[in-house]
Amino acid sequence: MQNSGLGYSLNVRTSLNLIYDLHVPLIVSWRGHDGNDAVEHDIIGRELLNLLDVFGLRHSIFDPNDPYASVERCLAAAEDGRTTPVLIVKEGI
């Protein structure tokens, strides 16, 4: 999903994670991370990592030079089964 979609889904995510203990890995685009995107992505792009931290969503950034390791690193961060892992993908992939 786009990072803006993550913003819309945080309430549902929180319910699934906290109430039902259901953790589904997410792949989230990182629009606006460099301030060079459509203006509506500037705030969420700038604050994405902080937002994920606030909601306890463990995250890693996709490395196109080593895609397999990127996915492994993301999933390993949630091996306990009690955390939602998020793989962040920048544009151009």
Describe the overall structure.
This protein is α/β, with parallel strands linked by helices. Helices cover 43% and strands 14% of the residues. A three-stranded parallel sheet has the order 1-3-2, sandwiched between helices. The longest helix has 17 residues, at 3-19.
Gyration radius over CA: 13 Å
In spatial order, strands of the major sheet run: 1-3-2
What's the story with the biggest beta sheet? 3 strands, parallel
Indicate the structural class. Answer: alpha/beta
Strand percent estimate: 5-15%
Number of helices: 3
Q: In sequence order, what are the helices and strands, one letter per element?
A: HEHEHE
Distance between the termini: 14 Å
What key phrases describe this protein's structure?
alpha/beta, 93 residues, three-stranded parallel sheet, 3 helices, 3 strands
Set out the fold topology.
Elements: H1 3-19, E1 26-29, H2 42-54, E2 58-61, H3 67-76, E3 85-89
Parallel strand pairs: 1-3, 2-3
What's this model, at a glance?
Helix content is about 45%, strand content about 15%. The chain is an alpha/beta fold.
